[in-house]
């Protein structure tokens, strides 16, 4: 649609003063201009680091180490609430599905209190991402929430989970959600 010029298009090309030092922003603009991003090791503290891996077997343990230890330790962040991994697709060894399983096991092992929903295992403390719009509940594709508790449902027999969502406290996981430690890029842009 953009290339067809059938609809008006606005391109954001200016780097504003507050983001001018962000290497994420600078490199994103380089990519948009068809220029290879600067992948060299930064000389000072930066918000952009390139970690090379030749195959998924090498990449996955590096990602787990970065998310669970190195990034939180270096920047004082919570690995579940403050770090978001992005990848270009859902499938494959370093796709969102595979990485979510690995990240969930590393960051919040399920233990006894777990529930199976939509082909995933959820437990209190898990980050979850809405993957379909649910207009009745006002939660949308890409929204992030956190599983807060496990409970037994009387209306529909079986265990359920409650999740917190910034705008919708106590939202049950009945609408379509996936683990949210890793997101395919199209969800991150939603």
Offer a concise description of the structure.
Helices cover 24% and strands 20% of the residues. It has 190 residues and is α+β, with helices and mostly antiparallel strands. The protein has a 5-stranded antiparallel sheet. Strands 1-9 form a two-stranded parallel sheet.
Please describe the topology of this protein.
Blueprint: H1 23-32, H2 56-75, E1 85-87, H3 96-107, E2 115-117, E3 120-122, E4 127-130, E5 144-153, E6 158-164, E7 171-172, E8 177-179, E9 182-184, H4 185-188
Parallel strand pairs: 1-9
Antiparallel strand pairs: 2-3, 4-5, 4-8, 5-6, 6-7
Structure explained in plain terms:
By secondary structure, this protein is α+β, with helices and mostly antiparallel strands. It is built from 4 helices and 9 strands. The protein is 24% helix and 20% strand. Strand 6 and strand 7 (171-172) form a beta hairpin. It is globular, with a radius of gyration of 19 Å.
